[in-house]
Amino acid sequence: MRKKYINKNNIHQEKNKKIDNINKIIKKNIINLIPYKSARLLYKDNDNKNLIALNANESSIISYFSLNKKIFNKYPEPQPKKLIVLYSKYVNLNVKNILVTRGADEGIDLVMRTFCNQKNDKILFCPPTYDMYRVTAQILDIKYITINSNNINWELNLNKIKENLNNVKIIYICNPNNPTGNYINKNIIIELLELTKNTTMIVIDEAYIEFCIDQTFTYLINKYHNLIILRTLSKAFALAGIRCGFLLTNEYIINTLLKVIAPYPISEPSTDIAIQALNLKNLIIMKNNVQTIINNKKWLVKNLYNCRCVKYIFNSSTNFILVKFYNSDYIFKKLNKKKIIIRNQNNQKNLNNCLRITIGTIFECKKLFFELQQLS
Question: Three-state SS string across 190-249, please?
């Protein structure tokens, strides 16, 4: 039988033609979008045995929960009442000030979709910071302004922000900040709230706030009607897998956001586990775990200064540290080969030669220190 000849060039041209036709339908901003790179996507090795993953700011301490509910044929509560009551007690706010979201990321998106139109409105954020503010704006085709933080102490450049508030509907502030680890001066944020109270929403992303709880702005929710706070159970609560977050603000904004949010944002299993995490016993465990991570961080920072490859370690009020190396690419690749995965920040504004390291267990911290000593 004669073999059928396949013209690979024709197949390639046909494929490109199909792509071109699809691209005529896809929004241009999506075609050109540089997506957010999640920690799971950045590590390509499928063999996870003995892997030390210190690149996602997840908790190093495992939380064990079992589902109480076993039947899931009905839709969940749109906003689970028991969960909201428990979280209201935890943050000392009225239940009317709380919205449950699929992690803090949904809160970032929800606020932007509610307050911004594509034609004139802008958002503002201050790099280096969490990249989902940019990504969400680009997905929604909303303009954004970046005002670089002071690269000495990563404080907000308030004067520069004041000069760029025209048509800015939302300012996103990660506090404490990711990836730098610092918290923002309270007086600067309060001045910003005062300055923008009739024009701009100030969204404070408190994903890491349990590691410096005295820096929270929840006590100002009822004073400033332009204040929104984002929270999550992913970090200190060690529940990144259930994707449960909260949006805290005044009652009127909550009711407005309820018009926009998906009908059933959080699943029954996620609600079940989140409720368990917020009982008194598990709150005590969470706080003890936070202290353990802080202690591990102190140990790691102290010892990293004995590594000759380390140039500087930035102060951190989170469950991670930002470290400046003399040659970060070399360190990153060598650790990768040893199955120690950290986050490369070399492409971020003003973070040349910087790597972000999640604080692991004391064993993981010692292993990291040992490998870095070998590279010194």
Answer: HHHHHHHCCCCEEEEECCCHHHHHHHCCHHHCCCCCCEEEEEECCCCCCCHHHCCEEEEC
